[in-house]
Amino acid sequence: MNARFKTLAATLTAILMMLSAAAALMSQSPASNGGRLAFDVASIKLFKPGAPLRELSGCHGNDSKYPQGMQVAPPPLARCVLHGYSVKSLIAFQANARTEQVTGGPGWADSDRFDIEAKAPDGAVPTEAQLKEMLLSLLADQFKLRIHSETKEVSGFVLTVAKGGVKFNAATGDEKPTGLLRTGRQMKGQNIPMSTFAGYLWQAAGGPVIDRTGLTGNYTFTINLTPGGPEIRTPESMSADSEGVSIFTALQEQLGLRLDSQKVPVNYIVIDAVEKPAAGGFR
């Protein structure tokens, strides 16, 4: 009997602890709007070129990571600050996709630019993913945006390891800042996975790139491009007497990676409907 009582007491204690944790989490969650996460305050304005850049564009969640020593400060915690974004680039940013993956919609959805500043409710500590979900809700409310996703097989490239193996090393974890950096005719990847690098190569290669290197973890590498040419040269952009080097050649010779042309599956976000907010309709 005593053992059964102890078991029951332990079970009740565990349940109370779970309920307490859930209540604490709910108290920190952003406000909802019909079951959707929602910002407390949001401002949408037409972008004015030449305005001073006070903060980096992005959504600063409680799990966001920004490198130290940046010249421009990140957005304040629990806010999204986005400067000069089109509707298509906002959709791509929210979905962690490329603008090329957003299709459909009127021409202004790609040409008109906006500044957005939005704040979660006081006391809320949303994650970066939650802030992006709130951004999508904002677009649905203010731009009457409706979208759907579909996957298509399109002409693209696969990134693989070339014969002889890779010519770069795994990241140490001490690299700062992390990400893809371009200075002059040099491109550096610092502490990034190959999937991120493959996504970046879309523009350089002229089509979608899928990572099939089989390389796990994060890596650090450098690509130096031929002096006298632009930062990245694709075969289509090179003339017969050009001194530039294609990204295909640079990848194989300097990193031990290959880009091979073939059909690849790509997820696209299709705009079904979108409207310009009425004059004075921005909040």
The helix/strand order is: HEEEEEHEHEHEEEEHEEHE
Biggest β-sheet description: 4 strands, antiparallel
> Strand arrangement, largest sheet?
3-7-5-4
* Spans of at least 5 consecutive residues with low confidence: 5-9, 11-29, 227-242
Q: Helical proportion?
A: 25-40%
N- and C-termini, Cα separation:
64 Å
The average pLDDT score comes to: 82
Count of alpha and pi helical runs:
6
Question: What is the global morphology?
Answer: globular
| Percentage of residues in strands | 25-35%
User: Structural class, from helix and strand content?
Assistant: alpha+beta
Number of domains: 2
DSSP summary, beta strand count: 14
Rg from Cα: 23 Å
Write the layout of secondary structure elements.
Blueprint: H1 2-28, E1 32-33, E2 36-37, E3 41-46, E4 58-60, E5 79-85, H2 87-94, E6 102-104, H3 108-111, E7 114-119, H4 128-143, E8 146-161, E9 169-170, E10 179-183, E11 186-192, H5 194-205, E12 209-211, E13 219-224, H6 247-255, E14 257-273
Parallel strand pairs: 6-14, 8-12
Antiparallel strand pairs: 1-2, 3-7, 4-5, 5-7, 8-14, 9-13, 10-11, 11-13
